[in-house]
Specification:
- There is one protein chain.
- The protein has helices spanning about 25-40, 55, 60-75, 85-105, 120-125, 140-150, 170-175, 200-210, 235-245, 255-260; strands at about 110-115, 135-140, 160-165, 185-190, 220-225, 265-270, 295-304.
- It is an alpha/beta fold.
- Strands 3-2-1-4-5-7-6 form a seven-stranded mixed β-sheet, with helices on both faces.
- The longest helix is centred in the first third of the chain and has 20 residues, at about 85-105.
């Protein structure tokens, strides 16, 4: 693992939060953190994937955000009690890489939608079959920032950006106008979204995605459990995100039921379980019946 950036202890040595890219709102700036994590993973000899574009997408704030996360996660004076964000992000990225690639190989799946797209570079770094249309939905400021950072790099897929806020009442119309066909199967990835939005908005998001997803469409997302939002030992991580203006506000202990309510039959896999480990998850995975433990789920399944 490359040497980490210098870090500050947020408890013993409080410092101002980093100056962040002003065109992006707080949740969108976490995409810069994800890019920084992916750049660090790419530099590892035992990396789970390679993202050659991540280092160019971190922006001015990305390294500072990553330093603050590392300081909270790996305190120098006591054992780690928080989930390992670098390992989690590496596993999540690889898990969804593999899922999207499997979906793309199915002839009946011709559309992939990332909502929100953030600083994701899968359209540029992964191989895609010729029959795929690849949609990235996000605000104009995000897409403009990303386009500038990727200037001169060609996507490896029929790539379409949809500049719209996901809280907009008409983002579905904008997606359709970009070439999305609600009548044929699609694959949706809601990565790094659901725990940042209130419960009612999470329900509404799933309802809206379901309404424009044909039967057989796939969905994938990550979500935390309710205890992860309140356990005392999670405060170090939760306080960092709250300090950035993007607190975690929604979690569920029954992710399968949440998605089934909107017509998706899904499985929920936790990092560290055989399907989502890759030899990198450092912590035990308590059985689902154990309460008051932090969990994160990778949810994936199909529209009925």
């Amino acid at each position: 693992m490359p040497a980490p950036h210098p870090v500050l202890n947020p408890v013993l040595d409080p410092a101002p939060h980093p100056v962040l890219d002003p065109a992006l709102d707080p949740v969108e700036r976490t995409a810069l953190l994800t890019a920084a994590l992916r750049a660090a993973e790419t530099r590892r000899e035992d990396r789970l994937y390679e993202d050659p574009y991540a280092a160019g997408l971190v922006g001015d704030a990305g390294p500072e955000l990553l330093a603050e996360i590392r300081a909270a996660t790996f305190p120098p004076d006591r054992p780690r009690t928080l989930p390992s964000t670098p390992d989690y992000n590496a596993i999540r990225t690889r898990f969804f890489d593999d899922l999207l690639q499997r979906a793309a190989r199915e002839p009946e799946t011709t559309q992939i939608v990332l909502a929100p797209a953030g600083m994701d570079s899968r359209a540029y770094r992964l191989p895609w079959p010729a029959h795929i249309r690849y949609f990235e939905v996000d605000r104009q400021a995000v897409l403009d920032f990303k386009a500038e950072r990727l200037r001169g790099v060609e996507p490896r897929v029929d790539h379409r950006t949809v500049a719209v806020d996901l809280t907009s009442p008409d983002w579905e119309d904008r997606l359709v106008a970009s070439g999305y066909d609600p009548a044929v199967p699609s694959t949706w990835l809601l990565e790094g979204l659901l725990y940042y939005i209130p419960e009612a908005d999470a329900h509404r998001m799933l309802e809206r995605v379901a309404a424009i997803s044909a039967p057989g469409s796939r969905i994938a997302a990550d979500i935390v459990n309710a205890a992860a939002l309140r356990l005392p030992h999670m405060r170090g991580l939760l306080d960092v995100f709250a300090g950035w203006g993007c607190p975690w506000v929604f979690g569920t202990d029954e992710p399968e039921a949440l998605f089934q309510r909107y017509g998706f039959d899904v499985r929920a896999v936790q990092p560290g379980e055989p399907e989502a480990d890759y030899g990198r998850w450092p912590d035990p995975v308590p059985p689902r019946g154990v309460t008051e433990v932090r969990r994160v789920f990778f949810v994936h399944g199909r529209r009925r």
